[in-house]
Amino acid sequence: MIEAVGLTKRYGRTVAVNELSFTVKPGRVTGFLGPNGAGKSTTMRMILGLDRPTAGDVLVDGRHYRDLPRPLRHIGALLDAKWVHPNRTARAHLRWLAKSNNLPRQRVDEVLELVGLGSVAHRNAGAFSLGMAQRLGIAAALLGDPQILLFDEPVNGLDPEGIHWIRQLMKRLAAEGRTVFVSSHLLSEMAQTADELVVIGRGRLIDQSSTARFVERASGTAVRVRSPQLERLRTALASTSGAGVRAEDGALVVTGLTSDQVGEVAAAQGVVLHELSPQRGSLEEAFIRMTSGAVEYHAEESGEHLHLRGARGAEGTEGTR
Amino acid sequence: MNLLAVERIKFFSTRSPWWTAVTALALMLGMSALFASVLEPDQLAVPATQAGYDLALVVVMVMATLAITTEYRFNTIKVAFQAEPRRTRVLLAKTAMVALVAGVLGEVAAFGSWALAKVIRPAADLSIDSGTEWRQVAGVGLVWALGAVLAVAVGALLRQTAGAVTLLLVYALLVENLVGLIPEVGPDVQRWLPFTHANHFVRGTGGQPAGAEVASAPPFGPWGSLAYFAGIVLAVLVIALVTANRRDA
């Protein structure tokens, strides 16, 4: 469990994180979503006690990070895969970390095997590819078998196999009942791994909700229908209250109705359907729309604003997902 | 104790400490061999065997600086503070580890240089039998250990290798010697500077072969000078610790 309350970080006149409050709960993957420069890494550094908040507070299992005895046993983190001495071997890097938290030496080899670096443990970390360095960072995070895990942009620069591996790992860790907090600037990435989202823009909280709800609210939903009797269907749908209809390359895109309702309207009219599929709006587009105007939002009323903007925005959104 | 072991693993698992240690040792032995072969046996005394101690001290301080500044350069200090958020403990463990290595290295270098001179000039009177002579040889390790502490502290304050090494080198090799050249006030200022006191402790006044000329008489005896040097080193260390706890890692 991670709890941030009014977390704020200022560098001179720049406000990197602005009165951020959120909670990260165990047993699920929580995505920390925001564009580059939104304050994700700064927030993570404050969680780990590396940076001192200008105001507000962040607690790990009800305690400040600095008050955790042997913290690697509580919370493991991968903030940057490059945080290793290039002339030190992977094993030596993990050995000093293990020693610092009084972890048994064989744990080092265990985690090296776990991340698939067993055969290159004797090699200098500086010679590692980004993917290998990322795995070493994850090995370090898992070293103390912690209940809470923090990953900052873990899939950046990885090949598809590495990405797949990390996604599976995060899901598995969450399924084991651990708290997994992972940052990303890609909503599409988060949509595949995260159960819950903490969304920030320009240091402020935009939304905290389940991924499904966020995606729904952000993009709105639409239903795509194809029929040989398209004009008849269009007329029928247009007269249904609350529905928006537009034509799109030989099909209709209906907003404001569920696919069930569209099907019922078609049946009542005796119209043959060749396709009836619910559509998701483009996530990235919706995300950009929401975060680019982040300063307009105020924490208390962000939900309302989002809903309105999201619904309106969905009209022009092409269904690609 | 764990944190000391951590620093031991870190210190010996990269190459630069080995290189700098070997360089310091070679400098000490080389200078001793040089003086032993150049001086006549009746001129050669115990202090001459330690002629390279201050040059080698600078190399030891580079070694100590690197131990902390590479942590900042490669951001492993953040990982270290993550593993042990009580930063004072982390930095004190590192300081202790580096000081211990510098101290042991200093004793090995000092007695090694003395033994080397004895081998080269068996005829010279190089027996260590007075308290002064013991101080002149064994004192090297103490000064190296304190110099290493100062270097770690400066490294932790500046957080980058180039800046810290330059500052320490220019200060120890140039500034303290040049201050004495300032008319009127120079010598009075110089007699209160730290490395002047370190020198005074190891070499005593007068009779040193390669030492800086100290125009004014030192304010303390040799052991007082060591205490004064240690005091300044500890003051810088305290400033470094307070600073490290205050700022973002």
UniProtKB/TrEMBL annotation, chain A:
Cross-referenced InterPro entries: AAA+_ATPase, ABC_transporter-like_ATP-bd, ABC_transporter-like_CS, P-loop_NTPase
Location of region: Disordered: 300-321
Entry keywords, A to Z: ATP-binding, Nucleotide-binding, Transport
Entries under Pfam families matching the protein: ABC_tran
GO molecular function terms noted in the UniProt entry: ATP binding; ATP hydrolysis activity
Organism this protein belongs to: Streptoalloteichus hindustanus
Protein name: ABC-2 type transport system ATP-binding protein
ABC transporter domain: residues covered: 2-227
PANTHER family: ABC TRANSPORTER, ATP-BINDING PROTEIN
Automatic annotation (TrEMBL), chain B:
Coiled-coil ranges from the UniProt annotation: none
Residues that span the membrane, as ranges: 18-39, 51-70, 91-117, 137-158, 165-183, 226-244
Keywords: Membrane, Transmembrane, Transmembrane helix
Keyword Transmembrane helix listed: yes
Name assigned to this protein: ABC-2 type transport system permease protein
